[in-house]
Amino acid sequence: MRLPPGQIETTRFPLVGERSPSPELSDPTSWILEVGGRVENPFTLTLPGYMALHHQKLEFDIHCVTSWSREGSRWSGVPLSVLFDEARPQSRGGFVSFSAYSSRDHHTSLPLAVAKSSSWLVHEFDGESLTSEHGGPVRVVTPGKYFYKSLKWVKSMEVLGEDRLGWWEVNSSYHNNADPWAGDQRFTSGSIRPEQADRFLEAANYDKYRGKVLLGLDLRRWRPSSSDLRRLYLKNCDLRGVDLGSVDLRECNLSLSNLSGANLAGADLSGSDLEGADFTDANLTDADLSASALSATRFEGAAVDGATFEGSWGLVENQYRLLSVQGVLALPVND
Fold it and tell me: The pTM is what?
């Protein structure tokens, strides 16, 4: 398999994002899709109505922004062009905003031309009904884009005259074009100005930063003034060689950050999002990584004696084997 820049191949289908829809879709048979906005014929599609459509087969490679790729994923569904033919978008409609049955109000957007030519509604994955945790009963997929453009539990499609940035693009600065092959469309630029980054590096405590995404920072000279680093969201940051020994990093987001050579001995990373993080040659002795997200996380050369991984999920195959050989996976890590 030819991989886009920075991706790791897996034969699994790792869970990413939310694991269940909002209570509004607690009964999958109640699924309804609203198609509207700048269209001549707005309509709603029920699950029986969707199932009565002519379903087709689709196969493509998934490329997740968290750095994993899965070759040849097979789906069944309906090209969105079928729905747009019925809705008849107006000439002034150039974009589509997709919203989800989501407790966090997830949504994403695409140019109308891309949605018409590439996107599908799907209900089957690899010959089986799409599970709820992966977006069933019906979700959107858009081959050729990072997977955050493929919305789980799709609730509505609204044709717009101007683009409306999606949830991930707004909250995590994910690139709106989302081309995996470009090599530079995983994120937009950093989320704060250089002087704000300096204030973070010099902060006496981190209360004002908890739950706020800090993106793309060079933190190699960071010497935390406190061991309480809970709920810091340091995404795609450079933390190479930083001393974080015995600190409290519970419920942090370090996805896609480079922690190679960092000291995390005795650190508590439980409940954290570590997807795509690089722990190459890091010291994770006696660290707690329980209940953490680990899809596409790298551990080559890391010291992991005494580390805890119970209840974590998402490890791709080669990383699972690496940690198993070192004897730190006493219990199976969840898929």
Answer: 0.90
pLDDT at 171: 87
Token digits of residue 212? 């706020």
Tokens of 242: 């930083």
Closest CA to 103 of 41, 17, 210: 17
Where is pLDDT greater, at 283 or 171? 283
Domain borders along the chain are 8-169, 189-335
Q: Is a pLDDT exceeding 70 seen at residue 334?
A: no
Q: Give CA–CA dist 120/97, Å, rounded.
A: 14
**293-331: buried (b, 16+ CB within 10 Å) or exposed (e) per residue?**
bbbbbbbeebbbeebbbeebbbbbeebbebbeeeebbee
CATH class label, 189-335: mainly beta
Rounded Cα gap, residues 18 and 115, in angstroms: 23
Fold of 8-169: Sulfite Oxidase; Chain A, domain 2 (3.90.420)
